[in-house]
Amino acid sequence: MIPLLKFSQACFSYAGRSIFEDLSFTLAKGECAALIGQNGIGKTTLLRLAAGIVRCSAGSVSLEGREVQRLSRTEAARLVAIIPQQVDVPFAFTVEQIIEQGRTPHLGFWGGLTVADRKAVERAIELTDIGYLRGRIFNELSGGERQRVKIALGLAQEPQLLLLDEPTQSLDIGRQLELLDLIRFLNQTGVTILAAMHDLQLIQGTFSSVLLLSPDQGLLQGRPSDVLKPKILERAFNCPPRQHPVLIAENRFQEGTAV
Amino acid sequence: MEAQLTDSVQMSSVHGKTGKTHLGRVLSLLLGALFIAILYSTVIGAVRVPVQALLQTMLGHQALSQEQEVILFQIRLPRILASALVGAALSVAGVLFQGLFRNPLADPYVIGSSGGAVLGASIGMFVLPQLSLLGFSGTALLAFAGSLATIVLVYWIARVGGRTPVVNLLLAGFAVSIMLSYSSYFIEVLDEDYGLGMRVLASWLHGVIGVPRWTQLAVVAVMFVLALALSFPLARRLNTLALGDEYAQQLGIHVEYVRIAIIVVGSLLTAAAVALGGLIGFVGLIVPHVARMIMGPDHVRLLPVTALAGAIFLVVMDTLARTLLAPSEMPVGVLMAFVGGPFFLYLLRRTKKEYAV
After folding, report:
1. CATH code: domain of residue B40
2. What is the value of pTM for the model shown?
3. Residue ranges of domains in chain A, CATH in brackets
4. pLDDT in tens, B301-322
5. Residues of A in contact with B300 (CB under 8 A)
6. What percent of chain A has pLDDT over 90?
7. How many CA atoms lie within 13 A of A134 on its CB side?
8. Could you give phi then psi for residue B46, rounded to 5 degrees?
9. Which of A92, A102, A118 is closest, CB to CB, to B356?
């Protein structure tokens, strides 16, 4: 069976700095995968490569067996939706107007929502349970509400693959659990999920697999119980961290006086 | 105003059919208001006639003297229609540029088209005074060309590695605009026939809607209708662009093409307005703002509303400019600065949340 998402020996560099070299992995249809790794390792970049927003310099990224570079933007947008960390809207759009934008890849030249488009928007609203927010101004929502609206916007695209960039960031614990519940539910309805996750404690019980980007071990992929092991994580996240240089200097100073 | 704002929020929460009737109602109200504004401003002036006489004449009865008819139909009406077109064009261009820059404070002149228009005008006035085409003077034609050329130049400067960051576009527009404005002053200084040229150029820069020939009106009207038709498919893409360039791209929008299209259509509208009325500020800022308060930010709904509201607004303003200091006249651009400036500042202060401006 063709995997939904496949990276084969993908390379990517930004501003002269190599971020990925020979990155290879596959994601099967129906999976619910968490992407973890230390800050700056390239989690967001990996999601952007998967969505076709940026291109790899060598190797390939394919969706359903087709290279993402060869897909038109509209085709890619029907297969994959990416939910960024931050969405800023300059005008007072309502939640419903924002979610309608998710239909963009399905519209014709002149636009105008058809009955099918309207249905997809309603379903996205229903799945994320935000009917009560419909007429509210997007910019006036709380962090948790915004996150749900952003996911609804992605769902309105009716994608095969939903990419989430740190969806639980800056949410309180209650909203975090709500969001994980939503992720589980969406996965059950058949959406394949790849989410960059910051908080490792939230992974067990929701995600079926983990992709760990590690500075010296490359990419590790496996079940949460196999990957989330102290030895592996300590190396991947540089724990315990190096001591602060000032602290090291102070220690040396104190040692010096002691002598 | 406050009541309208909450009203619009409630209205936009009701989707589909109800939203459309709302738009239809606003449009028919505005259409009626435009008709009345045109009617009344035609009869107001040094020569006054009752509205009934004008209506009777339009229905084929002889209710006006020959002299009155000449004044009303050959002097006032073309000017009033011109101001309606200028107002509509500047307002629609305002909506497009504000959407493009994702900034409610952008206006048709912000990316340098005014500077280009001014330079074109002064070249036309001092270097090629005999030029004319389709009833337009060389001044208007070269203003048009200058405005378009400037936008192309600014866009080319601002483009970095296949992308056009908005900050680059604004900064390039600002710098080029100032350079061009002073170049036109330089051309004026070089000219020997200093006094007369200065006065003509000055009146042009301050925004005076003269009495256009019917061919001129027809050309600008065609330009306007064409640009408006092109604006509609762009409007829904502007809604998507509000989410940010990268998000819009992710949703399948060719951000770069849409940007170029908006710049071309927006410049066409600005140039059309400039050709008839010179430089008139604030229209492209105020009208979209007020329309957004009533209609919400959806660009598809904003377009027809701003077009009609802009037309009404400038018809009224030009009539005031023509009659307030009778028998002398003031440039409508000056009146716009007096009235529009404070009104705009009031809007700015009144609005608590910047995105809702």
Report:
1. 1.10.3470.10
2. 0.83
3. 5-85+159-258 (3.40.50.300)
4. 999 999 999 999 999 999 999 8
5. 111
6. 53
7. 15
8. -60, -40
9. A92
